Amino acid sequence: MTSLSKLFTWGRNGTASLYPGYFALVMATGIISNAMFMEDHRALSDLLLLVNLVAYPTLCLLTIGRLLFFRKALWKDMIDPSLVFAFFTIVAGSGVLGVGLNLRGFVAASTGLWVASLLLWFIFLYLAFGVLAFFNFEDGANVVHGGWLNAIVATESLVVLGVLIAPYTGEYYQSLMVILYMFWGIGLGLYGIFITLFAYRIFFFKFEPEDVTPLLWVVMGAAAIATNAGSVLILTDSGSDFLLSLLPFLKGMTLITWAWATWWIPILILFGIWKHFIRRVPISYTPMLWSLVFPLGMYTVASLRLADVAGFAPLRTMSLGMIWIAFGVWVLTSFGLLGTMWKSLRLHFRSV
Question: pTM, whole model, 2 decimals?
């Protein structure tokens, strides 16, 4: 077997077993790029965007490859209660990338990503809840492992990008703004459902080290993106008296979601300390780690937006530190990804 055919086989195997939540890589890279853009670190922001412009189409092609050549494997993931919500990372990743492109003036591309995200959101939302209703048996879905809160992240990402493209919709501007307020509310409703199950599972059932996964951080990231979405709605003139009357509620809930996201951070850190330093489980790369990086970046952006809304300078100061923490974790995770790929490639070449 030639080296080229070995490489092809390695890529084929990787495509067949692709983790459906791998678009969290795009989410994590994109949100840190957007945060860097907001803080005027343009060179680093552009570099991260360039990474995403490679990663996003690559993951799209791999996913299409699964659809064309590995339908059974893809369908198995789509009807698995523990995996189906991972597909929402496609929606959220598209939204975060769309924001980055919109910030640089690529309105048509960002609009196309928003429309595609909206269509996928409808498909995945009702697919996911259908799977929970009809395929969730005793050993099925687990809110801790299943990444259910990715549904909230995807929903609120439609709001964040939608606000940016709304000014270009002409006579449909007010209608779109009403829809975006509705999506923000749907995201809060889903969060209320899932966070209840999440807290009940963690605090009232036996908790093992394997229950502490990077997906736990989505509980903070979902609250942070709800804060970000609420903030951009507050900062945007809706042009509607009805929506204007909702601003007091919007402001209150936006502050509450930020406070809730902040409250979770020390607990999540304690979970990590307990798993890796007390129970001594080694730290190793997993694709789910990108679901830890994204919330750190999103918390930074949410704090920056809320600082603009509230005029609260300490929030901006805090965000200046958080952005570098998020970037540092992104770098470490990237090295983990590259190292894992290289190790996998070497093992494959030795075994064939």
Answer: 0.94
